[in-house]
Design brief:
alpha+beta; Immunoglobulin-like
Length: 156
């Protein structure tokens, strides 16, 4: 994996250091997780997403989903079997895991379900009313609202 130096960004952009830190963190966590369990991230529409994790051999009780400081943490810890088993070949990884997904602002987990060895996590971006686009009506020149706005600008 190639490392990127974001120090030039810190010198010229204000407020974007958080983005560079998130990219660095994602690159570091991706190399350390070694790809288990495999997953997909799907965009269903403009504001809806789904994460699919292949968690064969895990029950609902073995899995834990938690959101900490804007990071979705999915972990699995298999309970030990009651009786010992003797394998001739063991190809199904039932080892403990932890996957982290950095969530963008206003992205919320809406539901999660386990079906046929796949964990489906549904997410939705919910923008607050103040962040949604809105139309501003343009008044006619000389109206009282236009004059008040112009006069307050002149006084600054």
């Amino acid at each position: 994996m190639q490392n990127f130096d974001f120090s030039p960004l810190y010198r010229t952009l204000v407020g974007f250091d958080r983005v560079a830190d998130m990219i660095d963190q994602a690159a570091r966590s991706e190399t350390s997780s070694q790809g288990y369990p495999p997953y997909n991230i799907e965009q269903l529409d403009e504001n809806s997403y789904r994460i699919e994790l292949a968690v064969a051999g895990f029950d609902e009780d073995d899995l834990n989903l938690e959101i900490r400081e804007g990071v979705l943490v999915v972990s699995g810890q298999r309970r030990s079997a009651e009786e010992p088993r003797e394998f001739l070949h063991r190809g199904i990884a039932e080892r403990a895991f932890e996957r982290r997904f950095q969530l963008a602002d206003y992205v919320q987990v809406t539901s999660a379900e386990l079906k046929n060895g796949m964990l489906y996590i549904h997410l939705r971006r919910e923008l607050p009313e103040a962040m949604k686009p809105r139309t501003i009506k343009i008044g006619k020149a000389g109206s009282s609202k236009t004059r008040r706005l112009t006069s307050s600008k002149k006084s600054n």
